[in-house]
Write a structure and sequence with these properties.
This protein is an alpha/beta fold and 235 residues long. It has 2 domains: 157 residues, Rossmann fold (3-Layer(aba) Sandwich); 63 residues, no CATH class. It contains 9 helices and 10 strands. Helix 2 runs parallel beside helix 5 and helix 5 runs parallel beside helix 6. The model has no long low-confidence stretch (mean pLDDT 91).
Length: 235
C-alpha cells in the first residue's frame, strides 16, 4: 500500500513541556489507522501537530512527499488534510448548510461535493436550515465530519468521534469511515472504544508517553487482546 502521510521522528511541546518524542507513522492511501493509548499519551497532540496547531520542534511530516511541517495551520487543509476535533467545534449559531459551506470554501468546492457529502449523511439533508447547536450529539458529529469532508480531503483526522454517542450513531460513523476507505480517503482515527475501532481499522498504532511504540494489524490485535490492556488499560 503506497504511503500517503508519513511522520518521521516528530517532537512537539506545549511551552517547556515536551509531549511527543520521536513519533513516526505511515498512513497508506485508503487506509484506516487507529491511534490507541491511555489518556495523556499524546494522541490528540499528534493530530494537532499534523494540522500545524501545535508546532513540531523536530522531525518531518510529509503528505504525498510534500513537507507539511512548517506550514501555517490555515494552509494544511488546503493541501488535503481535514480535521474533526474532539468535541466537534461547530459554529453553533450557524445552520447545517452554513457549516457545510464553510468546509466547501476551504478548497473552493461546489455543489457536486456538497451533494456527495449529504449523500453520506442523509439526515443532514433534512436539517439544512436548522441551527447546528440544536442538533443531537450524533447529528452534530455527522455535521462535523460532513464539514471536513466538504474539503475533499486525502486524509481525514478524527479525534474520538464516537465519544458520548448512542450505538446507532456510532454505527453510522463506522459505516462512513468504511465508505471513505472505498473512495480512497485515508483516515487517522483516535479512539478509546476499541470495540468501535476494530471493525473498520486496518492497523493500530499504540502511543505511550508521547512515543509511537508499536504498530500491528487488526487481526494480530484480535488474537492478543492483552495488548490493549497493556497499552490502553482497558479490555
Amino acid at each position: 500500500m503506497p504511503e500517503l502521510l508519513k511522520m518521521e521522528k516528530i517532537g512537539a511541546s506545549y511551552g517547556s513541556v515536551q509531549v511527543l518524542r520521536d513519533v513516526s507513522l505511515e498512513l497508506g492511501s485508503g487506509e484506516v489507522l487507529c491511534l490507541l493509548g491511555r489518556n495523556g499519551a499524546g494522541k490528540t497532540t499528534l493530530l494537532k501537530t499534523i494540522m500545524g496547531l501545535v508546532r513540531a520542534i523536530s522531525g518531518s511530516i510529509l503528505l504525498d512527499g510534500m513537507e507539511l511541517t512548517r506550514l501555517p495551520p490555515h494552509e494544511v487543509p488546503r493541501h488535503g488534510v481535514a480535521y474533526v476535533p474532539q468535541g466537534r467545534r461547530l459554529f453553533a449559531e450557524l445552520t447545517v448548510a452554513e457549516n457545510i459551506e464553510i468546509g466547501l470554501m476551504t478548497r473552493q468546492k461546489g455543489s457536486e461535493t456538497r451533494e456527495a457529502v449529504l449523500d453520506l449523511f442523509p439526515v443532514l439533508r433534512e436539517r439544512l436550515g436548522q441551527r447546528s447547536g440544536t442538533l443531537s450529539g450524533g447529528e452534530q458529529q455527522m455535521l462535523a465530519m460532513a464539514r471536513a469532508l466538504a474539503t475533499e480531503p486525502k486524509v481525514l483526522l478524527l479525534d474520538e468521534p464516537t465519544e458520548g454517542l448512542m450505538p446507532s450513531a456510532i454505527a453510522k460513523i463506522r459505516e462512513t469511515v468504511a465508505a471513505l476507505r472505498a473512495h480512497g480517503v485515508s483516515t487517522l482515527l483516535v479512539e478509546q472504544r476499541v470495540d468501535a475501532v476494530l471493525p473498520v481499522a486496518d492497523r493500530v498504532l499504540f502511543i505511550e508517553n508521547g512515543r509511537s511504540v508499536r504498530t500491528i494489524g487488526v487481526a494480530e490485535l484480535r488474537a492478543d487482546p492483552a495488548m490493549v490492556r497493556h497499552y490502553v488499560g482497558v479490555g
